[in-house]
């Protein structure tokens, strides 16, 4: 393992206002608005894993990827219960889906390239009001079960949804984590799921470029993490997370029963529904990529 690639990027004049150094997080009980941790990155970058690890702090609640169309198929919750018996979704699932069915289609641009020059012009006021109401509704439900909640984690990864959240009141307390993964294993995850090599490679490279330019253009503060550091250096990762979030993230996973995840990587959800057995070295790509594919990626990576 090489040198850690954990970095905190803080612009001189960030548009996102942060809590004063050393102060407590905003009192969610009075504002009914819990700050958000938003994970941005490529598909299959490990965002679901990171969401669960963040939940090692009992005051951080992980709810998966908000953007996922959770009404399309039968689901079970990471808490181990069916949707009907889940303490969070049991009475809320129908309302949760109804509120978000149209919202994300409304705030998603036809082309993500639009976000590089028109981020303030592509979302209607009505759509933002709907998104605001949706998040307030989630806040209300979370606080019923976890009245001390300090953060809600959205692992959606997409910059278009990050852009939408930044148009709501969530922006004043949002914490952005850019989770990266080495190109070869990330690409292998796409190929295992039936994606073609060239389109998948192009998508990964373009998305990395778009994320970088979007964060820079909007002068956003964010923490950059590398998935590859989790296996051999997670205590260092947890230390960086604790410093960035101003809340302790334990160096080893602790199941606080504060996750209700019905979206994201199904294998990861299962691992944390049962008993997390630790990190696995990211080497499966060696048997997934062909020699020719490995050579092509080596030219780029």
**What is the number of domains?**
1
Question: Any idea what the radius of gyration is?
Answer: 19 Å
Kindly name the structural category.
Answer: alpha/beta
Overall shape: globular
Q: Measure the end-to-end span.
A: 16 Å
How much strand? Answer: 5-15%
Number of strand elements: 6
Residue-averaged pLDDT? 89
Estimate the helix proportion, in percent.
Answer: 40-55%
Brief account:
The chain is 41% helix and 10% strand. With 301 residues, the protein is an alpha/beta fold.
Plain-language structure description:
With 301 residues, this protein is of the alpha/beta class. The protein has a single domain (16-300), classed as P-loop containing nucleotide triphosphate hydrolases (Rossmann fold, 3-Layer(aba) Sandwich). It is built from 12 helices and 6 strands. A 6-stranded mixed sheet has the order 1-6-5-2-4-3. α7 crosses α8 (197-217). The two termini are 16 Å apart. The relative contact order is 0.24.
Characteristics of this structure?
alpha/beta; Rossmann fold; six-stranded mixed β-sheet; globular
Layout of helices and strands:
Elements: E1 7-9, H1 28-31, E2 36-40, H2 47-54, E3 60-62, H3 93-100, H4 103-107, H5 125-145, E4 151-157, H6 159-165, E5 175-180, H7 183-192, H8 197-217, E6 222-226, H9 229-245, H10 266-273, H11 285-288, H12 291-300
Helix pairs in contact: 7-8
